[in-house]
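sry for the spam today, last one i promise. struct tokens for design, 297 residues
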């Protein structure tokens, strides 16, 4: 068959099909230029039903409530370090610290506690602060661990609060990486960056941000002499996990899984207990101050 004959057949077959369909009165949908056949829907996380975690501690809603968020989880390992031939995963480290902190607070009494996750499951970035909002939490603490990549000498804990302007280039890179966690793990919720920015722009509760800053300062104060801090201890960035406008939130970066000294503290019961004790003291002082403020009003 010649090329000319083949081309005539290619052109003739669709024409014959259309002509026959028209004779029979059948309508064939024809694509239009510019038609969008892929529909994209933005899922508003506030409209999705959340399975709220259990609240431990006093059975008294008047008692203060903190939601502790162990970062990453499930198929999202977070930062990865190595100890010998063993991988050290951020998701495991921060869950262990979160559980240790919860247990210390519950044992001491007086404060209600909930975890965004208490096992190796993934929770989306949008759901983490939304859990705190729906539980009407008084404080939100997200616990993470960092990676220095090839720079194994960088070490120390740092404390992040929410801001539209990153406090440093390193803080901006960290926020970009953390905010991309959902996309990297196959969770696509469009419009999140715009939503975060809108919330920050419309954030009228300056007291919420002031409270978060105060809590960050308390963590630094209570940890002095107990845990090692990064030279740039206090940082700020546009972190999606801290976006709840009505719940003071802080992200605690416990250390670097790529640094041997940090990794040792982060992977032992004794080291995790020290982190938990520092955070527990800061939380108790924070809530004691809030109680005094209400008493003075």
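last one done:
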């Amino acid at each position: 068959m010649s090329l000319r004959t083949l081309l005539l057949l290619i052109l003739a077959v669709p024409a014959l099909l259309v002509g026959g369909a028209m004779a029979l009165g059948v309508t064939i949908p024809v694509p239009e230029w510019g038609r969008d056949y892929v529909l994209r829907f933005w899922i508003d996380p506030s409209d999705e039903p959340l399975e709220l975690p259990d609240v431990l501690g006093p059975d008294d809603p008047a008692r203060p409530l903190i939601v502790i968020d162990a970062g990453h989880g499930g198929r999202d390992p977070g930062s990865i370090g190595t100890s010998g031939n063993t991988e050290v995963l951020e998701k495991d480290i921060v869950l262990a610290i979160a559980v240790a902190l919860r247990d210390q607070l519950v044992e001491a009494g007086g404060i209600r506690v909930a975890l965004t996750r208490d096992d190796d499951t993934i929770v989306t970035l949008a759901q983490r602060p939304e859990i705190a909002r729906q539980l009407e939490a008084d404080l939100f603490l997200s616990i993470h661990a960092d990676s220095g990549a090839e720079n194994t000498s960088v070490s120390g804990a740092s404390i992040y609060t929410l801001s539209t302007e990153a406090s440093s280039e390193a803080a901006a890179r960290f926020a970009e990486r953390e905010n991309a966690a959902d996309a990297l793990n196959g969770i696509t919720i469009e419009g999140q960056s715009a939503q975060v920015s809108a919330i920050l722009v419309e954030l009228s509760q300056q007291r919420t941000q002031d409270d978060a800053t105060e809590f960050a300062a308390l963590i630094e104060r209570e940890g002095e002499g107990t845990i090692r801090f990064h030279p740039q201890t206090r940082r700020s960035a546009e972190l999606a996990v801290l976006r709840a406008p009505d719940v003071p939130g802080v992200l605690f970066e416990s250390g670097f899984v790529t640094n041997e000294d940090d990794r040792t503290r982060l992977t032992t019961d004794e080291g995790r207990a020290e982190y938990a004790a520092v955070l527990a003291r800061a939380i108790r002082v924070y809530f004691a101050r809030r109680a005094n403020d209400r008493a003075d009003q």
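Confidence is low (pLDDT under 50) at residues 26-46, 182-192, 200-204. ok im logging off now
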